[in-house]
Amino acid sequence: MPRENSFSDSDGRSLTPDLEDEGDYLPPESPTYAMSIHDPPDLYTTQTRESARYAVRAAAAASVPKTRFRYAVRKVIALHRGTKVMSRRGVGAEPGIDPRSASADAEYGGIKQECVIEVVDYSAVRSSFGRMTNREFVELMNDPAASARESWVKVRWINIGGMSWDVIKAVSIKYDLHLLALEDVFHAHPRARSKADYYAQHLFLRVLCHELVDLRREAVPIPISLPPSYPPTSSRSETSDDRPAPDSSLHSQRALVQKSASDSSFEVRQIRAAAAAEDERRRMQDAALNALKSGERVNVDVVPMFIFLFRDGTVITIHSTPNLEMTEPIANRVRQFDTILRTTTDASLLVQSLLSLVTEKALEVVNAYQDKIQKFERKILVRPTVDIVRNLHILSADLILHRRTLAPIKTVVYGLRRYDIDRAAALMDASAKIRGAKVAGFMSHKSIVYLADVHDQMEYVLSQLDVIAGIGQNLVDYTFNMTSYEMNEVMRRLTLVTVIFLPLSLLTGYFGMNFDHMWIHNGKGDYYYWIIAAPIMALVLPLFIAPDIMRIVHYLQKRMLTKNVVKVGGVLARLSTN
Predict the structure, then answer these.
(1) Closest-CA residue to 472 (of 376, 342, 343)
(2) Are the CB atoms for 46 and 174 separated by under 8 Å?
(3) How far is CA 147 from CA 138, 140, 190, in A?
(4) Are 380 and 478 a contacting pair, CB within 8 Å?
(5) Helix axes 347-382, 386-418, angle to 10 degrees
(6) pLDDT one-digit tens code per residue, 346-399
(7) What percentage of the chain's residues is helix, strand, coil (to nearest 5)?
(8) How far is 185 from 408, CA to CA, in rounded Å?
(9) What's the pTM value of the predicted model, to 2 decimals?
Protein backbone atom coordinates (compact mmCIF):
# COMPACT_ATOMS: atom_id res chain seq x y z
CA MET A 1 0.00 0.00 0.00
CA PRO A 2 1.57 3.29 -1.04
CA ARG A 3 2.25 5.85 1.63
CA GLU A 4 0.70 9.29 1.79
CA ASN A 5 2.40 12.23 0.07
CA SER A 6 4.33 9.94 -2.33
CA PHE A 7 4.35 9.44 -6.07
CA SER A 8 3.18 6.04 -7.39
CA ASP A 9 3.29 4.28 -10.73
CA SER A 10 0.38 2.56 -12.51
CA ASP A 11 0.80 -0.58 -10.40
CA GLY A 12 0.61 1.34 -7.13
CA ARG A 13 4.30 1.05 -6.32
CA SER A 14 5.79 4.08 -4.63
CA LEU A 15 8.30 6.03 -6.69
CA THR A 16 9.64 7.78 -3.57
CA PRO A 17 10.33 4.87 -1.24
CA ASP A 18 11.11 5.54 2.39
CA LEU A 19 14.87 5.65 2.63
CA GLU A 20 14.83 4.02 6.03
CA ASP A 21 13.05 0.96 4.64
CA GLU A 22 15.86 0.14 2.23
CA GLY A 23 18.57 -2.16 3.51
CA ASP A 24 21.35 -0.60 1.47
CA TYR A 25 20.60 2.94 2.54
CA LEU A 26 23.51 5.00 3.79
CA PRO A 27 22.71 8.19 5.74
CA PRO A 28 24.08 11.44 4.34
CA GLU A 29 27.61 12.00 5.50
CA SER A 30 28.23 14.79 7.95
CA PRO A 31 30.36 17.73 6.80
CA THR A 32 32.13 17.66 10.14
CA TYR A 33 32.52 13.93 10.64
CA ALA A 34 32.71 12.50 7.13
CA MET A 35 34.05 8.91 7.47
CA SER A 36 34.86 6.17 5.09
CA ILE A 37 32.34 3.36 4.81
CA HIS A 38 35.25 0.92 4.99
CA ASP A 39 36.46 2.18 8.37
CA PRO A 40 36.46 -0.24 11.28
CA PRO A 41 33.12 -0.68 13.08
CA ASP A 42 34.35 0.98 16.28
CA LEU A 43 34.30 4.37 14.57
CA TYR A 44 30.53 4.13 14.52
CA THR A 45 30.14 3.76 18.27
CA THR A 46 28.90 7.31 18.58
CA GLN A 47 26.21 6.77 15.96
CA THR A 48 22.88 5.11 16.48
CA ARG A 49 22.45 1.39 15.95
CA GLU A 50 20.30 1.93 12.89
CA SER A 51 22.87 4.16 11.22
CA ALA A 52 25.62 1.61 11.84
CA ARG A 53 23.49 -1.21 10.40
CA TYR A 54 22.73 0.79 7.26
CA ALA A 55 26.41 1.72 6.87
CA VAL A 56 27.51 -1.92 7.02
CA ARG A 57 24.98 -2.92 4.38
CA ALA A 58 25.99 -0.05 2.16
CA ALA A 59 29.64 -0.97 2.52
CA ALA A 60 28.88 -4.51 1.35
CA ALA A 61 27.12 -3.23 -1.74
CA ALA A 62 29.36 -0.24 -2.52
CA SER A 63 31.30 -2.09 -5.21
CA VAL A 64 28.23 -2.60 -7.43
CA PRO A 65 27.78 0.27 -9.94
CA LYS A 66 24.00 0.02 -9.80
CA THR A 67 24.09 0.31 -6.03
CA ARG A 68 26.39 3.33 -6.23
CA PHE A 69 24.00 5.02 -8.63
CA ARG A 70 21.02 4.25 -6.38
CA TYR A 71 22.94 5.57 -3.39
CA ALA A 72 23.72 8.85 -5.18
CA VAL A 73 20.06 9.35 -6.14
CA ARG A 74 18.91 8.74 -2.58
CA LYS A 75 21.57 11.09 -1.33
CA VAL A 76 20.07 13.83 -3.51
CA ILE A 77 16.60 13.11 -2.08
CA ALA A 78 17.89 13.11 1.49
CA LEU A 79 19.73 16.37 1.00
CA HIS A 80 16.63 17.93 -0.55
CA ARG A 81 14.57 16.83 2.43
CA GLY A 82 17.17 18.21 4.83
CA THR A 83 17.20 21.62 3.17
CA LYS A 84 13.40 21.71 3.17
CA VAL A 85 13.30 20.96 6.87
CA MET A 86 15.99 23.54 7.50
CA SER A 87 14.14 26.20 5.52
CA ARG A 88 11.09 25.69 7.73
CA ARG A 89 13.15 26.21 10.89
CA GLY A 90 11.40 28.79 13.02
CA VAL A 91 7.84 28.94 14.27
CA GLY A 92 6.46 25.41 14.47
CA ALA A 93 9.78 23.76 13.65
CA GLU A 94 10.76 20.38 15.03
CA PRO A 95 11.94 20.84 18.64
CA GLY A 96 15.53 20.05 19.46
CA ILE A 97 18.74 19.87 17.45
CA ASP A 98 19.96 16.49 16.25
CA PRO A 99 23.75 16.71 15.80
CA ARG A 100 23.74 13.57 13.63
CA SER A 101 21.46 15.04 10.96
CA ALA A 102 22.74 16.64 7.79
CA SER A 103 20.29 19.54 8.15
CA ALA A 104 21.85 20.48 11.51
CA ASP A 105 25.29 20.47 9.89
CA ALA A 106 24.04 22.71 7.11
CA GLU A 107 22.31 25.10 9.51
CA TYR A 108 24.89 25.36 12.29
CA GLY A 109 28.10 24.41 10.51
CA GLY A 110 28.93 28.07 9.97
CA ILE A 111 29.25 28.71 13.72
CA LYS A 112 33.01 28.51 14.03
CA GLN A 113 35.23 29.92 16.73
CA GLU A 114 38.62 29.10 18.14
CA CYS A 115 37.60 27.67 21.50
CA VAL A 116 39.63 27.19 24.66
CA ILE A 117 38.94 23.65 25.85
CA GLU A 118 40.22 22.18 29.08
CA VAL A 119 39.76 18.55 30.11
CA VAL A 120 40.30 17.93 33.82
CA ASP A 121 40.44 14.46 35.35
CA TYR A 122 40.85 14.17 39.09
CA SER A 123 40.39 11.96 42.10
CA ALA A 124 41.45 12.13 45.72
CA VAL A 125 45.04 11.16 44.87
CA ARG A 126 45.72 12.48 41.38
CA SER A 127 44.68 15.18 38.93
CA SER A 128 45.32 15.75 35.25
CA PHE A 129 44.86 18.93 33.22
CA GLY A 130 44.95 19.28 29.46
CA ARG A 131 44.20 22.15 27.11
CA MET A 132 43.52 21.55 23.45
CA THR A 133 42.27 23.18 20.29
CA ASN A 134 39.09 22.44 18.38
CA ARG A 135 40.71 19.88 16.13
CA GLU A 136 42.45 18.08 18.95
CA PHE A 137 39.26 17.92 21.00
CA VAL A 138 37.22 16.58 18.07
CA GLU A 139 39.82 13.89 17.45
CA LEU A 140 39.76 12.99 21.14
CA MET A 141 35.98 12.64 21.15
CA ASN A 142 36.02 10.52 17.98
CA ASP A 143 38.63 8.13 19.35
CA PRO A 144 36.99 5.84 21.96
CA ALA A 145 40.34 4.56 23.19
CA ALA A 146 41.86 8.01 23.68
CA SER A 147 38.76 9.49 25.31
CA ALA A 148 38.27 6.60 27.73
CA ARG A 149 38.78 7.51 31.36
CA GLU A 150 41.54 5.84 33.30
CA SER A 151 40.75 3.67 36.30
CA TRP A 152 41.85 6.26 38.86
CA VAL A 153 39.62 9.03 37.44
CA LYS A 154 36.52 9.71 39.51
CA VAL A 155 35.42 13.02 38.00
CA ARG A 156 35.96 14.34 34.47
CA TRP A 157 35.35 18.03 33.85
CA ILE A 158 35.18 19.19 30.23
CA ASN A 159 35.31 22.99 30.26
CA ILE A 160 34.62 24.57 26.85
CA GLY A 161 35.16 28.28 26.31
CA GLY A 162 33.58 29.46 23.06
CA MET A 163 30.84 28.36 20.69
CA SER A 164 31.82 26.24 17.72
CA TRP A 165 29.62 23.68 16.01
CA ASP A 166 32.34 21.09 15.48
CA VAL A 167 33.25 21.06 19.18
CA ILE A 168 29.69 20.98 20.49
CA LYS A 169 28.70 18.34 17.96
CA ALA A 170 31.61 16.12 18.96
CA VAL A 171 30.85 16.30 22.66
CA SER A 172 27.09 15.96 22.15
CA ILE A 173 27.48 12.77 20.11
CA LYS A 174 30.05 11.35 22.49
CA TYR A 175 27.98 11.91 25.62
CA ASP A 176 24.51 11.75 24.00
CA LEU A 177 23.40 15.24 25.02
CA HIS A 178 19.66 15.73 24.78
CA LEU A 179 18.30 17.43 21.67
CA LEU A 180 16.30 20.00 23.65
CA ALA A 181 19.37 20.93 25.69
CA LEU A 182 21.32 21.63 22.49
CA GLU A 183 18.45 23.79 21.27
CA ASP A 184 18.71 25.82 24.48
CA VAL A 185 22.43 26.22 23.90
CA PHE A 186 22.03 27.65 20.39
CA HIS A 187 18.59 29.25 20.30
CA ALA A 188 17.89 30.60 23.77
CA HIS A 189 17.83 34.36 24.23
CA PRO A 190 21.07 35.68 25.77
CA ARG A 191 19.11 36.88 28.81
CA ALA A 192 16.65 34.03 29.07
CA ARG A 193 15.76 32.80 32.54
CA SER A 194 18.09 30.43 34.32
CA LYS A 195 16.64 26.96 34.59
CA ALA A 196 17.30 23.29 35.37
CA ASP A 197 16.07 20.51 33.07
CA TYR A 198 16.14 16.85 34.03
CA TYR A 199 16.78 14.21 31.37
CA ALA A 200 17.34 10.51 31.68
CA GLN A 201 21.02 10.67 30.78
CA HIS A 202 22.02 13.97 32.39
CA LEU A 203 21.01 17.10 34.27
CA PHE A 204 21.08 20.33 32.25
CA LEU A 205 21.54 23.76 33.86
CA ARG A 206 21.42 27.11 32.17
CA VAL A 207 22.72 29.86 34.47
CA LEU A 208 23.18 33.54 33.69
CA CYS A 209 26.54 34.78 34.98
CA HIS A 210 26.86 38.45 35.99
CA GLU A 211 30.44 39.65 35.92
CA LEU A 212 32.03 43.08 36.14
CA VAL A 213 33.52 44.19 32.84
CA ASP A 214 36.99 45.66 32.62
CA LEU A 215 36.72 48.23 29.84
CA ARG A 216 40.45 48.03 29.29
CA ARG A 217 40.01 44.53 27.92
CA GLU A 218 38.41 43.98 24.58
CA ALA A 219 36.21 40.91 24.34
CA VAL A 220 33.85 40.40 21.42
CA PRO A 221 31.79 37.24 22.01
CA ILE A 222 29.81 35.85 19.13
CA PRO A 223 26.02 35.92 19.43
CA ILE A 224 24.95 32.43 20.36
CA SER A 225 21.23 32.95 19.89
CA LEU A 226 21.40 33.85 16.20
CA PRO A 227 21.60 31.23 13.48
CA PRO A 228 24.40 31.77 10.97
CA SER A 229 23.54 33.73 7.84
CA TYR A 230 25.28 31.60 5.29
CA PRO A 231 24.01 29.27 2.55
CA PRO A 232 23.98 25.58 3.43
CA THR A 233 26.76 23.51 1.96
CA SER A 234 26.30 20.16 0.35
CA SER A 235 27.52 17.03 2.06
CA ARG A 236 31.05 16.06 1.15
CA SER A 237 32.53 12.58 1.26
CA GLU A 238 36.04 11.38 1.89
CA THR A 239 37.50 8.51 -0.12
CA SER A 240 40.07 6.15 1.27
CA ASP A 241 42.74 4.28 -0.62
CA ASP A 242 40.81 1.01 -0.66
CA ARG A 243 37.54 2.56 -1.80
CA PRO A 244 36.62 2.01 -5.48
CA ALA A 245 37.24 5.05 -7.61
CA PRO A 246 34.03 6.84 -8.61
CA ASP A 247 33.06 6.71 -12.23
CA SER A 248 31.74 9.52 -14.40
CA SER A 249 28.13 8.80 -13.48
CA LEU A 250 28.94 9.35 -9.82
CA HIS A 251 30.60 12.67 -10.69
CA SER A 252 27.45 13.73 -12.48
CA GLN A 253 25.33 12.73 -9.49
CA ARG A 254 27.54 14.79 -7.19
CA ALA A 255 27.07 17.74 -9.50
CA LEU A 256 23.33 17.12 -9.29
CA VAL A 257 23.59 17.12 -5.50
CA GLN A 258 25.34 20.50 -5.49
CA LYS A 259 22.85 21.99 -7.94
CA SER A 260 19.88 20.72 -5.90
CA ALA A 261 21.35 22.14 -2.72
CA SER A 262 21.94 25.51 -4.42
CA ASP A 263 18.39 25.69 -5.80
CA SER A 264 16.64 24.55 -2.64
CA SER A 265 18.66 26.90 -0.41
CA PHE A 266 17.54 30.09 -2.19
CA GLU A 267 14.56 30.45 0.13
CA VAL A 268 16.78 29.71 3.12
CA ARG A 269 19.17 32.49 2.13
CA GLN A 270 16.27 34.93 1.79
CA ILE A 271 14.93 34.06 5.24
CA ARG A 272 18.37 34.35 6.81
CA ALA A 273 19.08 37.62 5.03
CA ALA A 274 15.86 39.09 6.46
CA ALA A 275 16.76 37.76 9.91
CA ALA A 276 20.25 39.23 9.61
CA ALA A 277 18.81 42.63 8.65
CA GLU A 278 16.47 42.55 11.64
CA ASP A 279 19.33 41.59 13.94
CA GLU A 280 21.45 44.42 12.57
CA ARG A 281 18.63 46.89 13.16
CA ARG A 282 18.29 45.73 16.78
CA ARG A 283 22.03 45.97 17.32
CA MET A 284 22.04 49.53 16.01
CA GLN A 285 19.21 50.46 18.37
CA ASP A 286 21.02 48.86 21.31
CA ALA A 287 24.23 50.67 20.39
CA ALA A 288 22.44 54.02 20.21
CA LEU A 289 20.75 53.40 23.57
CA ASN A 290 24.03 52.39 25.20
CA ALA A 291 25.68 55.52 23.84
CA LEU A 292 22.97 57.65 25.47
CA LYS A 293 23.39 55.75 28.74
CA SER A 294 27.15 56.06 28.82
CA GLY A 295 28.63 57.77 31.84
CA GLU A 296 28.28 56.86 35.52
CA ARG A 297 27.31 53.22 34.95
CA VAL A 298 28.38 49.90 36.39
CA ASN A 299 29.53 47.83 33.41
CA VAL A 300 28.24 44.29 33.88
CA ASP A 301 28.52 41.46 31.38
CA VAL A 302 25.61 38.97 31.49
CA VAL A 303 26.47 35.74 29.69
CA PRO A 304 24.95 32.26 29.99
CA MET A 305 26.83 29.21 31.21
CA PHE A 306 25.57 25.73 30.32
CA ILE A 307 26.25 22.82 32.67
CA PHE A 308 25.71 19.12 31.98
CA LEU A 309 25.95 16.72 34.93
CA PHE A 310 26.11 12.96 34.31
CA ARG A 311 25.72 10.16 36.82
CA ASP A 312 29.12 8.67 35.95
CA GLY A 313 30.94 11.73 37.33
CA THR A 314 31.25 13.72 34.08
CA VAL A 315 30.60 17.46 34.09
CA ILE A 316 30.49 19.51 30.87
CA THR A 317 30.44 23.30 30.99
CA ILE A 318 30.03 25.54 27.93
CA HIS A 319 30.68 29.30 27.93
CA SER A 320 29.83 31.72 25.14
CA THR A 321 33.12 33.60 25.49
CA PRO A 322 36.35 32.03 24.16
CA ASN A 323 38.18 32.04 27.50
CA LEU A 324 38.07 30.22 30.82
CA GLU A 325 38.92 33.12 33.11
CA MET A 326 35.66 32.88 35.02
CA THR A 327 36.14 29.25 36.07
CA GLU A 328 39.84 29.65 36.85
CA PRO A 329 39.24 29.76 40.65
CA ILE A 330 37.46 26.39 40.51
CA ALA A 331 40.29 24.92 38.44
CA ASN A 332 42.79 26.14 41.04
CA ARG A 333 40.81 24.40 43.76
CA VAL A 334 40.91 21.18 41.78
CA ARG A 335 44.70 21.45 41.52
CA GLN A 336 45.01 21.50 45.33
CA PHE A 337 44.80 18.05 46.87
CA ASP A 338 43.34 19.16 50.23
CA THR A 339 40.18 20.87 48.94
CA ILE A 340 36.68 19.49 49.29
CA LEU A 341 36.43 18.92 45.55
CA ARG A 342 39.44 16.61 45.62
CA THR A 343 38.71 14.80 48.88
CA THR A 344 35.07 14.04 48.08
CA THR A 345 35.49 13.38 44.30
CA ASP A 346 31.85 14.33 43.88
CA ALA A 347 30.78 15.66 40.47
CA SER A 348 27.63 17.27 41.91
CA LEU A 349 29.84 19.19 44.34
CA LEU A 350 31.70 20.58 41.33
CA VAL A 351 28.37 21.82 39.97
CA GLN A 352 27.65 23.37 43.37
CA SER A 353 31.03 25.13 43.24
CA LEU A 354 30.17 26.58 39.83
CA LEU A 355 26.83 27.86 41.13
CA SER A 356 28.59 29.32 44.15
CA LEU A 357 31.04 31.04 41.81
CA VAL A 358 28.11 32.61 39.95
CA THR A 359 26.66 33.99 43.19
CA GLU A 360 30.04 35.35 44.27
CA LYS A 361 30.43 37.13 40.94
CA ALA A 362 26.96 38.57 41.43
CA LEU A 363 28.00 39.72 44.91
CA GLU A 364 30.89 41.65 43.34
CA VAL A 365 28.37 43.35 41.07
CA VAL A 366 26.24 44.27 44.07
CA ASN A 367 29.26 45.77 45.86
CA ALA A 368 30.03 47.87 42.79
CA TYR A 369 26.45 49.17 42.77
CA GLN A 370 26.72 49.98 46.48
CA ASP A 371 29.84 52.06 45.87
CA LYS A 372 28.12 53.83 43.00
CA ILE A 373 24.96 54.63 44.98
CA GLN A 374 27.04 55.98 47.88
CA LYS A 375 28.86 58.25 45.46
CA PHE A 376 25.55 59.58 44.14
CA GLU A 377 24.26 60.04 47.68
CA ARG A 378 27.23 62.19 48.65
CA LYS A 379 26.75 64.38 45.60
CA ILE A 380 23.03 64.77 46.21
CA LEU A 381 23.50 65.69 49.86
CA VAL A 382 25.99 68.37 48.85
CA ARG A 383 24.16 69.75 45.82
CA PRO A 384 21.39 67.84 44.00
CA THR A 385 21.39 68.24 40.23
CA VAL A 386 19.40 66.89 37.31
CA ASP A 387 22.46 65.06 35.94
CA ILE A 388 22.60 62.92 39.07
CA VAL A 389 18.89 62.15 38.67
CA ARG A 390 19.61 60.98 35.12
CA ASN A 391 22.36 58.66 36.36
CA LEU A 392 20.07 57.34 39.09
CA HIS A 393 17.39 56.61 36.48
CA ILE A 394 19.86 54.59 34.41
CA LEU A 395 21.10 52.79 37.51
CA SER A 396 17.55 51.89 38.56
CA ALA A 397 16.81 50.46 35.11
CA ASP A 398 19.96 48.32 35.25
CA LEU A 399 19.04 47.10 38.73
CA ILE A 400 15.62 46.00 37.49
CA LEU A 401 17.24 43.95 34.70
CA HIS A 402 19.73 42.37 37.09
CA ARG A 403 16.96 41.60 39.57
CA ARG A 404 14.92 39.81 36.89
CA THR A 405 17.90 37.78 35.65
CA LEU A 406 19.29 36.86 39.08
CA ALA A 407 16.02 35.86 40.75
CA PRO A 408 15.61 32.62 38.70
CA ILE A 409 19.02 31.41 39.95
CA LYS A 410 17.58 31.30 43.45
CA THR A 411 14.69 29.20 42.15
CA VAL A 412 17.11 26.83 40.40
CA VAL A 413 19.16 26.36 43.57
CA TYR A 414 16.05 25.78 45.64
CA GLY A 415 14.78 23.21 43.12
CA LEU A 416 18.09 21.33 43.21
CA ARG A 417 17.92 21.20 47.01
CA ARG A 418 14.26 20.33 47.41
CA TYR A 419 13.04 18.49 44.29
CA ASP A 420 16.11 16.71 42.91
CA ILE A 421 14.94 13.19 43.82
CA ASP A 422 11.32 13.90 42.86
CA ARG A 423 12.28 15.09 39.37
CA ALA A 424 14.65 12.16 38.94
CA ALA A 425 11.84 9.78 39.93
CA ALA A 426 9.56 11.37 37.33
CA LEU A 427 12.03 10.31 34.61
CA MET A 428 11.80 6.62 35.51
CA ASP A 429 9.66 4.45 33.30
CA ALA A 430 6.68 2.51 34.60
CA SER A 431 8.47 -0.87 34.58
CA ALA A 432 11.24 0.43 36.83
CA LYS A 433 8.71 1.85 39.25
CA ILE A 434 6.86 -1.47 39.36
CA ARG A 435 10.10 -3.32 40.13
CA GLY A 436 10.69 -0.90 42.98
CA ALA A 437 13.98 0.41 41.65
CA LYS A 438 15.80 2.79 43.94
CA VAL A 439 15.54 6.45 42.93
CA ALA A 440 18.75 8.45 43.01
CA GLY A 441 18.98 12.14 42.21
CA PHE A 442 21.81 13.90 40.44
CA MET A 443 22.87 15.89 43.51
CA SER A 444 24.57 14.17 46.45
CA HIS A 445 23.68 14.81 50.07
CA LYS A 446 26.82 16.86 50.66
CA SER A 447 26.22 19.05 47.62
CA ILE A 448 22.66 19.70 48.81
CA VAL A 449 24.04 20.82 52.18
CA TYR A 450 26.45 23.23 50.48
CA LEU A 451 23.72 24.46 48.15
CA ALA A 452 22.04 25.96 51.21
CA ASP A 453 24.94 28.42 51.44
CA VAL A 454 24.52 29.29 47.75
CA HIS A 455 20.82 29.88 48.35
CA ASP A 456 21.60 32.21 51.26
CA GLN A 457 24.12 34.15 49.17
CA MET A 458 21.65 34.60 46.35
CA GLU A 459 19.00 35.70 48.85
CA TYR A 460 21.42 38.33 50.15
CA VAL A 461 22.24 39.49 46.61
CA LEU A 462 18.58 39.93 45.72
CA SER A 463 17.81 41.73 48.98
CA GLN A 464 20.75 44.09 48.44
CA LEU A 465 19.55 44.85 44.93
CA ASP A 466 16.17 45.78 46.36
CA VAL A 467 17.82 47.96 49.01
CA ILE A 468 19.98 49.75 46.42
CA ALA A 469 16.96 50.28 44.17
CA GLY A 470 15.03 51.69 47.12
CA ILE A 471 17.87 54.04 48.04
CA GLY A 472 18.10 55.22 44.46
CA GLN A 473 14.38 55.94 44.35
CA ASN A 474 14.59 57.81 47.64
CA LEU A 475 17.47 59.91 46.31
CA VAL A 476 15.45 60.78 43.23
CA ASP A 477 12.49 61.76 45.41
CA TYR A 478 14.78 63.76 47.69
CA THR A 479 16.23 65.62 44.70
CA PHE A 480 12.82 66.60 43.39
CA ASN A 481 11.63 67.49 46.89
CA MET A 482 14.64 69.75 47.37
CA THR A 483 13.98 71.34 43.99
CA SER A 484 10.37 71.96 44.95
CA TYR A 485 11.46 73.33 48.32
CA GLU A 486 13.88 75.75 46.68
CA MET A 487 11.14 76.85 44.31
CA ASN A 488 8.80 77.44 47.26
CA GLU A 489 11.46 79.49 49.01
CA VAL A 490 11.91 81.65 45.93
CA MET A 491 8.17 82.20 45.69
CA ARG A 492 8.03 82.98 49.41
CA ARG A 493 10.72 85.65 49.09
CA LEU A 494 8.90 87.19 46.16
CA THR A 495 5.70 87.16 48.17
CA LEU A 496 7.48 88.82 51.10
CA VAL A 497 8.78 91.58 48.86
CA THR A 498 5.31 92.03 47.42
CA VAL A 499 3.74 92.23 50.88
CA ILE A 500 6.28 94.81 51.98
CA PHE A 501 6.03 97.10 49.00
CA LEU A 502 2.38 96.70 48.08
CA PRO A 503 1.05 99.07 50.85
CA LEU A 504 3.85 101.51 50.12
CA SER A 505 3.02 101.43 46.44
CA LEU A 506 -0.63 102.06 47.25
CA LEU A 507 0.21 105.06 49.40
CA THR A 508 2.69 106.35 46.85
CA GLY A 509 0.03 106.21 44.19
CA TYR A 510 -2.41 108.06 46.38
CA PHE A 511 -0.03 110.80 47.45
CA GLY A 512 1.25 111.16 43.93
CA MET A 513 -2.10 112.32 42.54
CA ASN A 514 -1.86 115.74 40.84
CA PHE A 515 -4.95 117.59 42.19
CA ASP A 516 -4.75 121.18 43.49
CA HIS A 517 -7.58 120.89 46.01
CA MET A 518 -6.06 117.90 47.92
CA TRP A 519 -5.28 118.63 51.55
CA ILE A 520 -1.82 116.97 51.34
CA HIS A 521 -0.57 119.60 48.93
CA ASN A 522 0.11 122.14 51.66
CA GLY A 523 3.82 121.37 51.83
CA LYS A 524 3.55 118.47 54.34
CA GLY A 525 2.86 115.54 51.93
CA ASP A 526 6.04 113.73 52.92
CA TYR A 527 5.18 114.03 56.56
CA TYR A 528 1.68 112.58 56.16
CA TYR A 529 2.97 109.75 53.98
CA TRP A 530 5.23 108.33 56.67
CA ILE A 531 2.65 108.86 59.39
CA ILE A 532 0.29 106.55 57.47
CA ALA A 533 2.91 104.06 56.04
CA ALA A 534 4.78 103.31 59.28
CA PRO A 535 1.78 101.97 61.25
CA ILE A 536 0.61 99.92 58.28
CA MET A 537 4.02 98.27 57.85
CA ALA A 538 4.27 97.67 61.61
CA LEU A 539 0.96 95.82 61.45
CA VAL A 540 1.39 93.86 58.20
CA LEU A 541 4.93 92.54 58.60
CA PRO A 542 4.46 90.79 61.97
CA LEU A 543 1.30 89.13 60.73
CA PHE A 544 3.08 87.78 57.67
CA ILE A 545 6.32 86.64 59.29
CA ALA A 546 4.74 85.39 62.52
CA PRO A 547 5.26 81.67 61.60
CA ASP A 548 8.94 82.33 60.86
CA ILE A 549 9.32 84.13 64.17
CA MET A 550 7.78 81.17 65.99
CA ARG A 551 10.11 78.72 64.23
CA ILE A 552 13.12 80.83 65.20
CA VAL A 553 11.95 80.89 68.81
CA HIS A 554 11.46 77.12 68.88
CA TYR A 555 14.87 76.58 67.29
CA LEU A 556 16.57 78.75 69.92
CA GLN A 557 14.74 76.91 72.71
CA LYS A 558 15.88 73.53 71.39
CA ARG A 559 19.46 74.73 71.07
CA MET A 560 19.45 76.00 74.66
CA LEU A 561 17.90 72.73 75.89
CA THR A 562 20.51 70.70 74.02
CA LYS A 563 23.34 72.77 75.44
CA ASN A 564 22.00 72.36 78.96
CA VAL A 565 21.68 68.58 78.56
CA VAL A 566 25.22 68.34 77.20
CA LYS A 567 26.52 70.53 80.03
CA VAL A 568 24.76 68.45 82.69
CA GLY A 569 25.99 65.23 81.05
CA GLY A 570 29.56 66.51 81.11
CA VAL A 571 29.31 67.41 84.79
CA LEU A 572 27.91 63.97 85.66
CA ALA A 573 30.65 62.29 83.66
CA ARG A 574 33.34 64.23 85.53
CA LEU A 575 31.73 63.39 88.84
CA SER A 576 31.56 59.69 87.98
CA THR A 577 35.21 59.62 86.99
CA ASN A 578 36.22 61.38 90.21
Answers:
(1) 376
(2) yes
(3) 10, 6, 32
(4) yes
(5) 160
(6) 999 999 999 999 999 999 999 999 999 999 988 888 888 888 888 888 888 889
(7) 60, 10, 30
(8) 18
(9) 0.66
